[in-house]
Amino acid sequence: MSYVEALRLALRRLRTNPLRTALTTLGVVIGVASLVALIGVGEGTQTAITNQIAGLGTNLLSVNAGGSVVGGIRGAAGSASTLTVDDATAIAALPGVTAVAPEMSVANAVVVDGRTNTTTSMTGTTPAEATVRNYQVQTGTFISDLAVEKGLRVAVLGPTTVASLNRTPEAIVGQTVTINGIPFTVVGVTQPKGGAGFTNPDDAVFAPISAVQSRFTGASTLRTIGVSLTDPAQLAYVESEIQSLLRYRHQLASSASDDFTMVSQDQLLSVASTTTATIRNFLIGIAAIALVVGGIGIANTMLVSVRERVREIGTRKAIGARRRDIGRQFLVEAVIVTLGGAVVGVLLGIVVTGAVGSAVNVPASPTLAGIALAFGSALLVGVVAGYWPARQASRLDPVEALRYE
Amino acid sequence: MAEQTGVPPAGPPASPPLIEGRGITRLYSMGDSQVAALRGVDFRIFLGENVAIIGPSGSGKSTLLHILGLLDRPSAGQYLFAGVDTDTLDDDRLAVLRNRAIGFIFQSFNLVSGESALENVAAPLVYAGVRRKERIERAEESLARVGLADRMHHDPSQLSGGQRQRVAIARALVTRPAVILADEPTGNLDSRSSADVFSLLQELQAEGLTLVTITHDQRIADRAARVLRVEDGMLVEHDAPAPYLDHAVAPAGAGGVVADEDASPTPEDPGLRTLGLLAEGDAS
Ligand SMILES: Nc1ncnc2c1ncn2[C@@H]1O[C@H](COP(=O)(O)OP(=O)(O)OP(=O)(O)O)[C@@H](O)[C@H]1O
Ligand SMILES: [Mg+2]
C-alpha cells in the first residue's frame, strides 16, 4: 500500500468516526495548549519582574543617606542626616548627570478626603522626580518648578491612593485633601506603573520639597537623591565623581568611611536576574512535569484508540495486509491526528496564555521556544504512541488479532 | 504441467493438491497445561472441490480452517499450499497468499465498520496494489454478483446479517481467489438469509471455485461432494479425495470468477497462478 493509499484510508477513517477522532485529537490539543500556556505565562512573569525594575527609573543611581556596614555596625539607613538639598544641587552640576531629584520622605501620611482616608507615604521632591523615577501623569500635572519655589501646598497622588479614597483620577484633581491635617490641593494623578512589590509605586503622594520641609519635617535632610545618568556606560565614573564630591562636601577625613551609599539600577537588575533565574528554573520544572503529564495523556489516548482497533488489524491482515501496510495506515493516522491536535493546541495555548495573563495581570505572551517544545514533543509522543502498538498488533497472527476483544 | 486443453485429465492429477496437511497439530498452552485442538490431521483438497467440515462444538474445526486460511500456524506438522511448505514462507508472503489465493468468510462477518460495503469489498485490492479506478469497478462487480448492487454505499451497521455476510463473500471473491474458506457462514443468520448465502456459495463453487465450509447444517453437508468429520482434534471420517471426480471437471477458467481478466484465452491453471504468486512475493 502506497503512502497515498494510506493517506486516503486514514482520512476516510478519521472522517467516518468523528467522535473518536475528536477525542483522540482532544488529548493532543490539551497537552499542547497547557504546555504553551504554562511556558508563556512563566516567561511573562519573568518579563514582568524585569520590567518593574526597569520602571523604577531610567539609568537610575540612588544616593542614600547613611553609611554602609562597617565592622558589623551600621547606622540606620537615612537616620544619619547627612544628605541635603544643596548636595543634590551640587550633584546636578556634575558631567554625565541628566536629572537629580532630592527626596524627602514622610513615612506615615494620612490623606483625608471628606469622609474617606488612607495612609501612605509622602515624598517631598522636585519636578525632576518624574524623570528620575519614571513617572507619567495621567490626569492634571506633576509638581511644577513654581510650586517648589513658592512652597505651594499641592500634591500629586498615585492611582492606588486615589482608588483607596474611592475616587476617580478625574474627580479628585482640583479637590483639596488634608495630609496629616494640613490641606493640600490635588493637581495630578500618576499613571499606574503596575507592579506589586515591597513598595507599591502607585500608592504614593508627591508634594513640593519646600512644602514638605516647612510643614512636616522641619529639617533640610534628605532620605535619598535620585540621579539620572546620560549614559549607563558612565555609571562607574559618575559614581566615583559623586563619591568624591559628597566626601568633600561632608568634610570626611580620608580615614572615614562614606556617610552615604549608592545603589545603581544595574545592581538591582542583577539581583533581580538572580531571582528571575530561580523563577525560570522553577518554571522549567513545572513545564517538565506538564510535558510528562501531557505526554502520558497523549500516549494514552493514542494507545486506547489503537487497542480498540486490534480486531480491525486482524481483519485487514486476513484479507492480505502486510505488516508494513498496517504500519503505514496507523503511522499516517497518528501523524494527522497529532499534527492537527498540535496545531489546534498551539492556537488554543496562545488564547489561553493571553486570558491567563490578563486574569493574573502578567504580560504573558506565548514564546516560540515554548511552542516548538510543545509541538515537537506532542508530535513525537503522539506518533510513537499511535504507531508502535499498531506495529506490534500487526505482528500478531491474524487469528490472535481477531480474537482480541 | 497442466494440460492446456481444458479436457479432464485422464490419469492421476498433474497438479499437486491445492491444500495438503501432514500430521497437523495445534496446541494451545493454558497456563501450565497444554490443550491439543488438533492432533495430527492429514488431508488433501484439490482445486474445484466442494468440501464440508463437520463435527461437534469444540472439536477443532475452526482451528483447522484458520490454519488452512494461513491465519494461524500449526504447532507441528506440515501444511502445503499449492505444493509449497507454508512453514518456509515469511509473514509478507503469507499475506500475499491470503490476499490473492484465499478468500476467508467468518461466522461473524468481520467487516470494517465505518467503511462502506464498497470500501470493504475493495480493501483486499488496495493491498494487492490495484489502482483505484479498477478497484472500484471490480468491487462493484463483486457486489453485483452477490446481489447487493443497491447497497454499495451502506455502512455494515446499516445492513442485515445476511447482507453483511454477502458483503463478506463479495470481499472474499474480489481478488478471484482459488479457494473460499467459510467458517459457519450461515451460523449467525436466520433460515431465509442462510438459504440465500448457502445457494450463493454453491453457485460460486459450481462456477469453479474450491469451497471448504464448516457447517452444523446437514443440508450443506449433504450438498458437499466430500465431508470431513472432525472429532476431538482428529479427522474421523475422511472420504478419499476425489481427484478423478469432482475437481477435475470444474477447475481453472471454468467460471468468470476464477479466470484472471488478463489471462490469455487459453485456460490458465490457478494452481500455477498461485505458484506464480509465491515467486512474485511482495509485488506492489
Ligand atoms: N485461543 C485458544 N486458547 C486455548 N484454547 C483454544 C483456543 N482456541 C480454541 N481453543 C480450544 O481448541 C478446541 C477447538 O476449538 P475450535 O474453535 O477449533 O472448535 P470448533 O470445532 O470450531 O467449535 P465450534 O463448533 O463451537 O465453533 C476447543 O477445545 C477450544 O477450547
Ligand atoms: Mg468454530
Characterization of this structure:
The complex is a heterodimer of chains A (405) and B (284). Helix content of chain A is 56%, strand content 17%. By secondary structure, chain A is α+β, with helices and mostly antiparallel strands. Chain B has helices at 61-68, 91-100, 117-127, 132-145, 161-173, 191-206, 218-223, 246-249, 270-280; strands spanning 19-30, 33-45, 50-54, 76-81, 84-85, 102-105, 179-183, 210-214, 226-231, 234-238. In chain B, the strands form two sheets. Chain B has a six-stranded mixed sheet, with helices on both faces. The two termini of chain B are 28 Å apart. Chain A binds chain B through residues 1, 5, 9, 12-13, 16-17, 311-312, 314-325, 395, 397-400, 402, and chain B through 66, 69, 71-73, 91-92, 95-96, 98-100, 104, 106, 110-112, 114-115, 119, 123-124, 126-129, 155, 171, 175, 282, 284. The structure holds adenosine-5'-triphosphate and magnesium ion. Magnesium ion (MG) is lined by residues 61-62, 183 of chain B. Adenosine-5'-triphosphate binds next to β1, β2 and α1 of chain B.
Structural key phrases:
heterodimer; A: 405 residues; alpha+beta; 2 domains; 56% helix; B: 284 residues; alpha/beta; Rossmann fold; six-stranded mixed β-sheet; 10 strands; binds adenosine-5'-triphosphate; binds magnesium ion
